[in-house]
Amino acid sequence: MPTVECDPDEARGRLEAAGVSVSPGNTDHERWRAERGDASAVAYDGKVVVQGSRPTDLLALIQPKGGRAHVYFDGASRGNPGPAAIGWAIVTSNGIVAEGSKRIGETTNNRAEYEALVEALSVAEEYGYDEVDVRGDSQLVVKQVRGEWKTNDPGLRERRVKAREHLSTFDRWSLEHVPREINDRADSLANEALDDA
């Protein structure tokens, strides 16, 4: 059960601005309650507790904008080129704030990795984070985006530019190559999307 330390009135305002219906609390200690998707939130003095099978359905709306997040990304292609999918997860001190995956048609593994990075950064932008520490298990993508390796393929070069544009919107960012086991959640999401096809 993630707990977000925040001003409950400001959190309520963010929920209502996003079209989420907010109702009065059930007890004297509850300030208000809200539900969206498979998540429910209960506000108390100085904090909001989020429950349900998918707390991420509400967490990003409740948290104050700004702050720092860890962003994990992975792309997968079976056949290289072949059927491909992406997976990503955004993690803060409250746990997984958001995650997602989807099929992206047929492409190479490297292009799928870039698509995953761009998608993950786009979501982190929407959530309003100031700082992101981005992690992926594609050494090629990490080193190309950081400018350590050349990007000769025109399709990858275009994706590299798009990734750099997204990174430039954050006050601070880092991009690191990590072993697959550290990138396990994003990897699993990408492969599940391929398996579900």
From TrEMBL:
Segments forming domain RNase H type-1: 65-195
Name under which the protein is recorded: Ribonuclease H
PROSITE patterns to which the protein is assigned, alphabetical: RNASE_H_1
Any Pfam family matching the protein: RVT_3
Listed NCBIfam families: RnaseHI_Halo
Gene Ontology MF: a single term: RNA-DNA hybrid ribonuclease activity
Organism: Haloferax prahovense (strain DSM 18310 / JCM 13924 / TL6)
Gene3D superfamilies on file: Ribonuclease H-like superfamily/Ribonuclease H
